[in-house]
Amino acid sequence: MPIDEHVKSGINGSELLKFRDGSVRLEVDMRCYRLSAVQKVAYKLAEKCTVVLGGVDVTSLPITFLFPPATSEAVALDVIRLFFQDLLDQELREQIAEETRPLRALLLAHAFSKTNLIRRE
Amino acid sequence: MLIKLSARGLRPLSEVSPSSFVGRICEQPEHPSTERATEILLVKEPLAMLPDGFRGYLLHHEMRDAGRRDSYVLAPELTYLAHGDVVRVEPTRRGLTTLYRRTSNSNSFLLTERCDNFCVMCSQPPRPDDDLWRVHEWMKVIPLISPDTTEIVFSGGEPALLGDHLVQLLDTMKRVLPRTALHVLSNGRRFSDAAFARSLAEVHHPDLMIGIPLYSDLAEEHDYVVQANGAYDETVRGILNLKRRGVRVELRFVIHRDTYARLAAFAEFVTRNLLFVDHVALMGLEMTGFAKTNLDALWIDPIEYQPQLVEAAWILHRAGLNVSVYNHQLCVLSSELHQFARKSISDWKNLYFDECAACRLKDDCGGFFASSTVRRSSGIAAIS
Amino acid sequence: MTLDAPFHDRTEYLPAASYRLLPFRFGRFDDHRYLLTNDVGEYVLLSRNDLVAFVEHRLDRGDGAYRALKSRHFLFDERSRVALDLLALKYRTRAEGVASFTGLHIFVVTLRCDHSCHYCQVSRQTEDRLHFDMTPAHADAALELTFRSPSKRIKIEFQGGEPLLNFDLIRHVVERGKEINRTHRRDLRFVIASNLSRLSDEVLSFCRTNGVYLSTSLDGPEDLHEAQRPLRGGHSYRTTTDNIRRAREALGPGFISALMTTTPASLMRVEEIIDEYVRQGFHSIFLRNLSPYGFAARTNLLRRCTIEDWIEFYKRGLARILKINAGGYPLREEFTSILLQKLFSPTGSNYVDLQSPAGIGIGAIVYNYDGSIYASDEGRMLAEMGDASFRLGHLDSDNYEKMMTSESLLSVLDKSMPEGAPMCNDCPFLPYCGADPVFHRVTQGDPVGHKAFSDFCKKQMATLRYVIGLLESDAGVRGTLLQWI
């Protein structure tokens, strides 16, 4: 799946992702993504690479992607693409969770309130 | 055997009562004289004299000097009447309506013509008038019914609109006819009132099932078919309330052009959300009432929706639900559905076409509604 | 075609123009689609465009996606709130199962065995050491604890070593169990997991009289079975297959089943193994994965096959099985059936290794030959490897309450629940998955584990993805699979 426009605009610094010494460094615009989303995606990709998060301020979070030895540049860039696709998905998840959290609480309360069970004979 | 349940076929031979009355057909002139007040003597062979004390007399043949009040000659279309049947004699219009037939495979009591739905295919179009007199009449009829009757159906209109009267009817049925199963056809909406569902359940009728139509997995589709906004929500809540109280519930789905497309989606919805229902009936269209009025819009040849019907029936069956297919003929049904097909059509409106005489499966097949002559499936053919 | 007055057309009955989201999870399914699931296990596959449109409230109420999502309770509109009643009811139904806990009770009646299977999970002892048998006193204590479970269905499974080497104790437990059950009236079943080498007529007769089930091991065609499951004196395959036939004749086909164990050698031969099951007249086969316990771990068998190898094995096996079904021979794959139950049954599946909360203690309890009690079969194997964290107590010293409410059991159940675990709590496969705290403790050192490194997670995601894909791809295949539920 191609990286869409939103992703491209969220990557500060150089348009090219430089793969050097088995790592890639870039900066993520924190006006576009939540920190919790970045952390969750980093966790999920832990087998493919180690994600080191730097100091975060309002606009910028430096990230270093460390790849296992003998990882090719092509594979590394694929992982980065996956990282940003997953980041978009994670943002969507957080949005959904915010919107549906009260309803889930309501449903659970209703489910376990004192009402008669319906038994199937 | 087609029968006219209501006809203006009485020719009075004597003085008649000013208003309608109910009675049970009796073929025995020597019936004990103390027990004749609710019996109507059926005279098939001429008698020299009509014995006194019966509520009325129905004769197959002309008789001079009948000498008893409410004596009538029966028109030929009413000579099917037999011992144990219960009728309403309507002297003013010279008519008779059969309310109960002892030998029928299906006895249905119309409790009211009022209804809070307005289904596009309704076979018994609603009328808004207050007709509580029907309930009072049925209360008189019930004690006259044979206790060996297997099943009675309560229908309408919408029986639940009768509220406590319905509860009382159920209670009467339980006391007077404890061995008779009771099948109540209702749209279920009034049972969204949990207190009402509870009072019905608390009758503890020994063999009760409520048959509730549900036409889709989507509220908008169901509400369109029944022509009432909010009906779906009330119906589903009604089903849940009844099941919470241990009342047996059957879902009924009528298949026509506006419902067939979501048959499989409906079936999956039932297996996910209503798995505790006791029966699901997938039903062919009866082309009377509004179904006939709207036939051009609603008609679809059943052979065209077989794939959807097969899928739905198997989704339900695999989930462990009891499934039946009603009002379809074996030649029209896919063979995978034969195990679910039932002989569901009431005898008095049941017929077979000419080509059925040569059919190998005729005895197992439920045949057609009398109204099926209006439009026929192209799939009708004798199976050799 | 529209209807005339007094009937209205559909515009009179439309849902509200806007809709509200109900709770759901989602994730990438394949190159084109996303999988959405809700807490009660319903699913929808959507393109990413539709997913985003859905979340951004841009779906039109006439769209196919809108209708599919509404029907399965991913969205609702204000004009029909009964969706909330139905959804709450489903939440309740799904949770109810937890209250009737511990359906499976495993009695390890002896550690003695006459086979030397290379992958054996149990440190088997050779036949002539009698103090590796369970005592009648311990068996009675174990039976008492068994009937303390609230579950209406109770299955007592006899394992070993080779359980038939202590047949007297099996007889005692069956008879005593049935006696106790006269007051309890549970649905009580007995299974003997045996290599069948000791299947005497006396044993068969007892099984027939008492309705006892037999479960045996059949690893594949003769050469594979012989190589993996050597019997002292030889002829392991012939003994097994002859006895399968005898059992089937004496007890009926429904009372004898077989399980395979997957080894590196099996991985390349899945079709032959399946064909062997057909040849032996079985209608069910379980494509199991290699477990990391016991002798298998110690002899480093794991290094020789990866989870990807196993996934390939599973897919090829399932393809073969579906083909056999299409040819008219009914053959069900058990792991797939478990996944299908989780996908479609309102109460899910009771397979102990795929539960949330985990099946340890509340799915199964193991009473070992020496009187110690474990929270699962794997928990016992872990103890043999030196880690006793899943030991619940001992029949001589611990009562039921102490065992089942111990902090170690409860905190593991709590911590390992997918609903609370990183990655799991966002995963669309969550309603179809479960916790395996013992596996994660063995492979990663803690009961929760880091799922990005978890073979369990990889296996679950790959198999669920594959099965859902099959269900969506072909009506015939879907029909066959749904018959397995």
Task: From the structure above, extract its key features.
heterotrimer, A: 121 residues, Alpha-Beta Plaits, five-stranded antiparallel β-sheet, 45% helix, B: 384 residues, alpha/beta, Glucose Oxidase, domain 1, TIM Barrel, eight-stranded mixed β-sheet, seven-stranded parallel β-sheet, globular
Characterization of this structure:
The complex is a heterotrimer of chains A (121), B (384) and C (485). Chain A is of the alpha+beta class and 121 residues long. Chain A has one domain: Ribosomal protein S6/Translation elongation factor EF1B (Alpha-Beta Plaits), CATH 3.30.70. Chain A contains three helices and five strands. In chain A, strands 1, 2, 3, 4 and 5 form a five-stranded antiparallel beta sheet that branches. Mean pLDDT of chain A is 84; it is low at 1-9. Chain B has two domains: 6-100, Glucose Oxidase, domain 1 (3-Layer(bba) Sandwich), CATH 3.50.30.10; 107-373, TIM Barrel. In chain B, 22% of the residues lie in helices and 20% in strands. Chain B has helices at 132-141, 164-176, 194-201, 219-226, 231-244, 263-273, 290-293, 295-298, 306-318; strands at 6-7, 10-12, 21-26, 39-43, 56-59, 71-74, 86-90, 95-100, 107-112, 151-156, 181-185, 208-213, 248-254, 279-283, 323-326, 350-351, 368-369. In chain B, helix 6 (263-273) runs parallel beside helix 9 (306-318). Chain C is an alpha/beta fold and 485 residues long. Chain C is 41% helix and 13% strand. Chain C has 19 helices and 15 strands. In chain C, strands 10-9-8-7-6-13-14-15 form an eight-stranded mixed beta sheet, with helices on both faces. In chain C, strands 2-3-4 form a three-stranded antiparallel beta sheet. Chain C has a two-stranded antiparallel ribbon with strand order 1-5. The model of chain C has no long low-confidence stretch (mean pLDDT 92). Chain A binds chain C through residues 1, 40, 43-47, 89-90, 92-93, 95-96, 99-101, 103-104, 106-108, 110-112, 117-118, and chain C through 20-28, 31, 39, 48, 51-52, 55, 84-85, 87-89, 91-92, 95-96, 422-423, 426, 450, 452-453.
